[in-house]
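Submission sheet (multi-component)
Chains listed below:
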Amino acid sequence: MSKNHKTSNANLNRISASEFKKSEKFNTIIVLDGVRSLHNVGSVFRTADAFLIEAIYLCGLTGTPPNKEIEKTALGATNSVEWVYFKKTEDAIISLKNKGYKIYAVEQAEQKTWLNNVNYNNENIALVFGNEVYGVEQPIINMCNEVIEIPQLGTKHSLNISVSVGVVLWQLLGKKINVE
Amino acid sequence: MSKNHKTSNANLNRISASEFKKSEKFNTIIVLDGVRSLHNVGSVFRTADAFLIEAIYLCGLTGTPPNKEIEKTALGATNSVEWVYFKKTEDAIISLKNKGYKIYAVEQAEQKTWLNNVNYNNENIALVFGNEVYGVEQPIINMCNEVIEIPQLGTKHSLNISVSVGVVLWQLLGKKINVE
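Outcome: structure written.
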């Protein structure tokens, strides 16, 4: 494989921010419920850009663009991905319900669907991710339609939140992405 | 769903670090080739813990435990997951080849297998992830058996490296994790 050259950034032929805005998106909205780390917020923007997500709802103490710390990991994805700020996460959920979205909390709970068993059929869905320490708050879980849990086999309680967003989006959307 | 209680950390019944060491792992080794961000390194440890990965090889300028910045995101996973430091990434690859591992670079390259099309059958594999800006260096790619590329549809060139590790591990191992 000595001639397998890396693709230059120019040759990746990525779309522009204005093309992104006009592109057909996955009908998926990410809700961040009190995510404290601005690095995590920026990283979620970058992942949402890569997987053509409809929007990110930033709620409560979650930081919002423009912000230098968010940009360190977003690297400009705040210019392509739509976002809305809600002071109360409850209001974000009510707004999504009114628009007909099915709402999943990504958490560890008594009744849950394991991520391995989740299938996505292009319906309108929202995925709620919570604070680094407290997770998605119980009153918010009570408002959600279902809980998705990522199976984890090791010693720690949970994955980093930006990693969780990547893993869940890949499970749902990876199979839908056309590759040659 | 008003009675769907979150699972307390105690009720998650996670294994201890010594139980982790004795557990049967996935035959998967993660190689970090010059990863600059200590937050990324810590986050990779946490993901490797969650998915019972055999070891992490930290190469070149990649930071190593014990390190306060790594711990901020590893949250103790440096105590469970095995790691080895190699000054030269080439030496890590040679060591893996000698042990019979199939080696995949996770990169963007002319010849690649799209992540959607990768299947894992419990063979010994190593996954090489590169520097935040430069990716996996071309001489290292030349030593690998194959390149895996994560399809990305948006404006940016790549995902955050700790997110990439999560997404690739989930694609390979998610289906292998038994859930009830």
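Remark: Chain B touches chain A through 74 residues (CB under 8 Å).
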